[in-house]
Structure formats: structure tokens, C-alpha cells
């Protein structure tokens, strides 16, 4: 089974919430995907932050292992 990652899980994982990171690690072998709507939501939050570049860098590193899919 594959899973579609939403913005809440990304934000929780980037916020270093151990449970979110653990669940994503457990699901990764089965396939975790992210779509462009979710990417846009997280980018919007990054651009509104006090340090956009740091948030964008962290988000891009986070996304590397996931495959992006269209809607």
C-alpha cells in the first residue's frame, strides 16, 4: 500500500515531533508520496516565516526521499 503525505505530517516532522518522524519511517518502505498541492502549502508557510530561506532549505531536504506525484 502507498501513502499520500499531507502538509500536517510534513510540518510535524520538520518541527521535530518524534511520533510523526517515526510513523513516516515505518511507512517509507511501502511508499510515501507527496503531491504539488501539499508542496505549495508548505512553501507558502515557509515564505511567511521569519526566516524563509532556512525553512525552504529544510523543506527541500525533507522532500528528497519522497516521490512527487500529480493530482
CATH fold type: Rossmann fold
Shape: globular
Number of strands: 3
* C-alpha termini separation: 18 Å
Mean pLDDT: 89
**Which radius of gyration do the C-alpha atoms yield?**
12 Å
For the sheet with most strands, the description reads:
3 strands, parallel
Task: List unreliable stretches of 5+ residues.
Answer: none
The CATH class is identified as: Alpha Beta
How many domains? The number is: 1
Order of helices and strands: EHHEHHE
- The CATH superfamily name is 5'-nuclease
How much of the polypeptide forms β-strand, as a percent range?
Answer: 5-15%
Strand order of the largest sheet: 1-2-3
What is the tally of helical segments?
4
What is the architecture at the second tier of CATH?
3-Layer(aba) Sandwich
Give the class from helix and strand content and strand pairing: alpha/beta
What percent of the residues sit in helical stretches (DSSP H or I)? 55-70%
Helices and strands, with pairings:
Elements: E1 3-5, H1 7-14, H2 18-27, E2 32-35, H3 36-47, H4 52-63, E3 67-69
Parallel strand pairs: 1-2, 2-3
Helix pairs in contact: 1-2, 3-4
Detailed description of the structure:
With 71 residues, the chain is of the alpha/beta class. The protein has one domain (3-69): Rossmann fold. It is built from four helices and three strands. The chain has a three-stranded parallel beta sheet with strand order 1-2-3. Helix 1 crosses helix 2 (18-27) and helix 3 runs antiparallel to helix 4. The longest helix has 12 residues, at 36-47. It is globular and about 35 Å long. The model has no long low-confidence stretch (mean pLDDT 89).
